[in-house]
Design brief:
By secondary structure, the chain is mainly beta. The protein contains one helix and ten strands. Strand 6 and strand 7 form a beta hairpin. The N and C termini lie far apart (about 60 Å).
């Protein structure tokens, strides 16, 4: 009987949460590059004990591209090459990692892929990575990163637009 009561309470709580969320949910946007053009520019921040730079191009040729760099103690720790492209009526973010000497982490034909889950005027939510537009000159990026134990940590990057 206690189990049934507990399940009932959880269901009621979940329904209340969904009701609250549904009133504050942003309207979804079409998964088109022009709807994420705000991302274009040079963004700087701090993460992993160092300085980060992420530079996004304007949409062209069916994609946007970015370079990412992490600098620790005056040296590059790693780079990323990223793209967001339109595919099958959606968006996908793909990236490849490189060490400080531009040696690839992934195999030649391998990419890390993040399919789009939701797009609004203020958020791009990919499976494993999301972007939240705080203002025209600030954004937060959230990335799921596996730790040494195999668990997933949510890492936040706060960026300020410099150009």
């Amino acid at each position: 009987m206690k189990t049934v009561a507990l399940l009932f309470c959880l269901c009621v709580f979940q329904l209340q949460a969904q009701t609250i969320d549904s009133t504050s949910v942003e309207k979804p946007l079409e998964p088109k590059l022009e709807n994420i053009a705000w991302l274009a520019g040079s963004w700087h921040g701090e993460a992993f004990g160092g300085q980060t730079e992420e530079i996004w191009s304007k949409p062209s040729g069916g994609s946007m591209m970015a370079s990412f760099k992490l600098i620790n103690d005056g040296k590059v720790s790693f780079y990323e090459l990223e793209i967001i492209r339109e595919i099958e009526n959606s968006l996908i973010l793909q990236l490849k990692h490189f060490d400080g000497e531009l040696k690839g982490w992934e195999t030649k034909d391998e990419t890390i892929d993040f399919p789009l889950k939701k797009l609004t005027a203020k958020q791009m939510i990919f499976d494993g990575m999301s972007f939240k537009r705080v203002s025209d000159t600030e954004m937060n990026v959230f990335v799921d990163i596996k730790n040494e134990n195999g668990d997933v940590d949510l890492v936040q990057f706060n960026y300020k637009k410099v150009e």
